[in-house]
Amino acid sequence: MYAFFLRAVTLSVLYFCLIYWTDVMEVVTLGGLIAGACIAGIGSALVQILVWKHGGSILRKRALLFVGSSCLTMDIMRLLPGYTVTDKFGALVLLAVFCLMVLGVTELTVKKEIKE
User: Where are the alpha helices (DSSP H) in the chain?
Assistant: First the structure.
């Protein structure tokens, strides 16, 4: 359970920093940005649990996690009010960076869970 909360908080902070410090998309309110970051962090942590419990090869797990995180992030950008994408190519790059950070955080925390 500790690793789940660690993943959720870490990913929420990373998502917040990515959106706040880049000019790829505009968010009208700070509360909307915080809500989106929390949803992205908790959702990505839940996707990580589902992917790792599902089993399979490590490459399959990483691919499923990448696709799941990207779909979740795109839904947040599309469905939450106040999110305006100003640069579509930049948004794709931002999405790829966030998904790679999700993979990195997963590798660090899942290895810790397996050792315990």
Answer: 2-21, 30-54, 58-79, 88-115
Report which DSSP code applies to 87.
Answer: -
pTM reported for the whole predicted model: 0.82
Angle at 54 between CA 52 and CA 58, to 5 degrees: 55
CA pair distance 92, 13, nearest whole angstrom: 19
- Residue 25 φ/ψ, nearest 5 degrees: -140, 150
Phi, psi angles (nearest 5°) of residue 63: -65, -45
Confidence band, pLDDT 50/70/90 cuts, at residue 112: low
